[in-house]
Design goal:
Blueprint (H helix, E strand, L loop, with lengths): L1 E7 L3 E11 L4 E12 L15 E14 L3 E17 L8 E17 L7 E18 L3 E20 L4 E20 L2 E22 L10 E13 L2 E15 L2 E12 L17 E3 L6 E12 L2 E2 L2 E2 L1 E13 L1 E4 L6 E5 L4 E15 L2 E16 L2 E4 L6 E10 L5 E10 L12 H4 L9 E12 L2 E8 L34 E9 L4
Parallel strand pairs: 14-20
Antiparallel strand pairs: 1-2, 1-28, 2-3, 3-4, 4-5, 5-6, 6-7, 7-8, 8-9, 9-10, 10-11, 11-12, 12-13, 13-15, 15-18, 16-17, 18-21, 19-20, 21-22, 22-23, 22-24, 24-25, 25-26, 26-27, 27-28
């Protein structure tokens, strides 16, 4: 049994309940429940709009696992509902937004382990979900969307060479049926999606050599080949390679490269853009988005002054072939079109963790992100993406493990904002060029005694906020209204308090 209750200064209350039961040696169940409510009553900058939406959410998951001599499997059911309202505080002709989301998911996996060769198994994965969204956003937008999703996959696994070689192969199919209805300035747009993507896949894994540390393989190579037919007339080749190399006991290098694609939902993916009063200009679009992805990761645990230092370095690059471009640089419209040219996303990251002593440990991290897209105005930074982020975290834990304290500082770098040509200056405020860089500070204290844990903390300790978050808030039904450029917290300091309880039957 696990229970958690939480409340904060801004009117959010939350409860979580986990119930786990072992019925016998073969069957286990878990029931996980969540409920939260946010009253959203604050307007710190007196612009007449609620800082937060008023939200009510319920989420439940029922999970069952079973295992016998020859079979093992899992069956899950999840249901979620999320309702939120926001907008102006005024009662006279207000700008209001209302949104409701419902989601249901049933998933299962089943595997047969009773082959004569213990390295040979047959497994299956099944997943079904349905999602529904209903929303109105001001006077000019309303959206209704629904989707049914079904996925099935059979996996044949065979190992040989004392586990040095393994192959996973089989068929798979993904079926999506969706509908979106957007009412845009009383112009109704309806999109229907029926997407069936059968596939065949084969993954080969090779382990070579041994390290001194716990006998881990020195080299692991994984090659994946997948053929899918997202378009009934043309197959899509999806290769992937992953390499993990332990070149020293304390150092591991991982590398990956491959191709991926996704089915988009044109309107549901851009819900934030509905918080404007601009008409949409939609050009020819691809059937799916696709990209090539590359990654490097280096993890090391060398000793420094007799203490184990943990270092993590990351580099990831994504090159898009097809991509839906949401161009907001024209203040008179939302332009949506397929990529014509280059689009890439580069992410470089690093973290370092060092035990200091006397219960203290420190963590320092940094991330650089450079996303550039060929917009109609040229090869430019993607909007609302911080160029860099930084993190400094200090932790302390008492020898008895009863007390623990964390203090974390986050640094957020500048982001490119949309062009404001033609918008009256009195509406723009600080939404020109790039956003300012800023820092956030948060801390938490935990007290653990037996089955009980009490925690208290505070977010945004320095009370940093974006004062003018909405462009043209004075005329919410006018052409220039735009509530999408929120680049910093619009809430101030947030103290909170919580209580946890854990109990395990002997």
């Amino acid at each position: 049994l696990f229970a958690n209750i939480y409340g904060d200064y801004h009117g959010r209350y939350e409860g979580n309940l986990h119930l786990n039961r072992v019925w016998n040696h073969h069957i286990q169940s878990g029931l996980y429940l969540h409920g939260s409510r946010h009253s959203g009553f604050r307007d710190h900058n007196k612009d007449g709009f609620y800082d937060d939406s008023r939200t009510t959410r319920y989420n439940g998951l029922w999970r069952n696992t079973f295992q016998s001599e020859n079979w093992e499997g899992q069956f899950n059911i999840q249901a979620l509902t999320d309702r939120r309202t926001g907008g102006q505080l005024t009662e006279e002709n207000p700008y209001l937004s209302n949104q409701e989301i419902g989601h249901f998911n049933a998933s299962a996996n089943l595997g047969f382990l009773g082959m004569k060769n213990p390295g040979t198994t047959i497994g299956s994965i099944w997943d079904f979900s349905t999602s529904e969204l209903k929303g109105t956003y001001g006077r000019n937008y309303s959206l209704q969307a629904r989707e049914w999703h079904l996925q099935a996959q059979i996996i044949f696994t065979h190992e040989w060479g004392e586990g040095a070689h393994k192959i996973d192969a089989g068929p798979a199919i993904t079926y999506n049926q969706a509908q979106e209805n957007l009412d845009l300035f009383n112009n109704k747009i309806k999109l229907d999606y029926i997407q069936a993507a059968p596939a065949l896949f084969a993954d080969y894994h090779w382990k070579f050599g041994q390290t001194c540390a716990e006998g881990a393989p020195k080299l692991i190579l994984s090659l994946s080949q997948r053929i899918e037919w997202p378009d009934t007339t043309q197959p899509l080749w999806i290769p992937r390679i992953n390499v993990r190399y332990n070149f020293l006991d304390e150092w591991t290098l991982r590398a990956s490269a491959g191709r991926g694609y996704r089915f988009y939902r044109l309107f549901a993916d851009q819900i934030n853009v509905l918080s404007t009063n601009r008409p949409w200009d939609i050009g020819p679009l691809p059937k799916y988005e696709s990209s090539w992805n590359y990654g490097l990761n280096l993890v090391g645990k060398p000793n420094l002054f007799g203490k184990e230092l943990e270092i993590n370095l990351d580099a990831y690059l994504t090159d898009f072939e097809n991509q839906i471009i949401i161009d907001l640089d024209d203040p008179t419209r939302v332009s949506i079109y397929n990529l014509d040219g280059r689009s890439r996303a580069l992410v470089l990251g690093s973290t370092g963790t060092l035990p200091i002593g006397y219960g203290f440990s420190a963590k320092i991290g940094a991330r650089y992100q450079n996303n550039k897209i060929d917009y109609r105005k040229g090869f430019r930074d993607q909007i609302m993406i911080p160029k860099w982020r930084g993190l400094i975290s200090l932790d302390w834990e008492s020898t008895s493990k009863i007390w623990s304290v964390n203090l974390t500082a986050n640094l957020i770098g500048p982001m490119r904002l949309t062009d404001k040509d033609g918008i009256p200056h009195e509406y723009v405020h600080d939404h020109i060029g790039r956003s300012p860089q800023y820092g956030l500070l948060q801390g938490q204290v935990n007290y653990l005694k037996g089955s009980w844990e009490v925690y208290a903390g505070c977010e945004n300790i320095t009370n940093y906020t974006q004062h003018n978050a909405i462009i043209a808030f004075q005329e919410p039904h006018g052409n220039y209204f735009n509530a999408t450029e929120v680049f910093a917290p619009i809430n101030g300091i947030k103290p909170y308090l919580g209580l946890k309880y854990r109990w395990k039957q002997d």
